[in-house]
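User: I would dearly like some help making sense of a protein record. I have put the entry right below:
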Amino acid sequence: MSMLPDLFPGFDERRIETSGAEIFLRTGGDGPPLLCLHGYPQTHVMWHRVAPELAKHFTLVCADLRGYGASSCPPTDKAHETYGKRAMALDMVEVMAALGHDRFRLAAHDRGARVAYRLALDHGDKVERLAVLDIVPTLDAWVDFNARGAMGKFHWTFLAQPAPLPETVIAADPVAWHEMLMARWCAAGSLAPFAEEAMAHYRSAFSDPTHIHAFCEDYRAGYTVDQAYDRSDKEAGNKISCPTLVLWGGGRSVGTVSNTLEVWQTWCTDVRGQALPCGHFLAEERPEETAALLSDFFQTS
C-alpha cells in the first residue's frame, strides 16, 4: 500500500488474521464503531470522500474484503464457499472483535453490501444499524434477471462462468475491463467522477491474476451458495431485525436496481430509504449527500 497515494491521512493501517483470511483495513476517527465495506470493482478506498465527515462522529473501520485490495486471497473450493458471503461476513465479525468491537454499525456498497446483509442475518446480535448501498438481495436480483436486467448485469453471468474463461479474458487487458465498468455504471458515463488517486488503487488491485480469480469466485459464489443462503432464510421467514437504511442511485443508465425499497421491505422489519441523483457509486459521485444521510442514520439512537 505504501507505493500508492494515501487517501486516509491520520488513519492507521492494520492487518488482522481471521479464521479464513488476512484482512487489510484502515481505521480512524472517534465515536461508536462503524464498519464500511466496499463493492466491485473497488476496494476500501471508495470511502475516501465520505470518511473525513464520518470520522467526526464514528470510529471508522474501512476494510478490504477477502480477495480484494490488500487483503489475502484464500484458496478456492469447488463449492465456492470460500468466497460465499457467509465466510466473508465471518471475516468481518472476527475483524471487529479483534479491534474490540463486539457490536457495531455497518455501511456497505455493492458486493460489500451482500456481505453486510448476510452478516446481519447470520450475526444479528452484532449489528446495531445497517446501511446498504445500491443493491437488492442476491436471490431477488437473480429472480429479476429479465432481458433488460441481463443486459445491465451481464458481468454477473460472465464472471460466474467456470474458470478460467473470465479470468483469461480479463487478464488480457484488466485496466480496460475495470475502466469500462466504472464508466458504464456511473451517471456521467465516464471516469470523471473518480479521483485519479483512487483509480490508481483500483487499477493496481484489479490487475493481479490472483485477485482476478478471487473476484470471479465472488460472483460464482453469488450464483451458487449465496442464492442458497438467501433462499434458506426466505423459506424460514428470517428477517433483518436492526434498523436498516437503503440508498440507491437513481441516475444510472444501465443495470438499474428496480423496486429497491419494496424488495428490502420483504427482508427487513425496520427499513427506510431513498434514491440519490447519481449512478452506482454514491460515495464518490455524491459524497456530501451520502455522508450526511449515513451520519444522520447512524447517529440516531
